[in-house]
Amino acid sequence: MDRRKSQEKASGKLGSKSRPKGKDEPDWAEGLRKLYNSVVDEPLPDSFDELLKKLDDDGAK
Hints:
This protein is an all-alpha fold. It has three helices and no strands. The chain is elongated and about 55 Å long.
């Protein structure tokens, strides 16, 4: 499986901007959700991408 596709598939957001705050949701939950989403949205470093390509090539042999 192409790792980029699996990364894109796995990068689903924890919440959306339009998500209403639940009655049982703690105050810090929205901040944690924003932090998680910002990390998920970071691009993959080139060195990681090159390593993953090498691993994919080796696995296909």
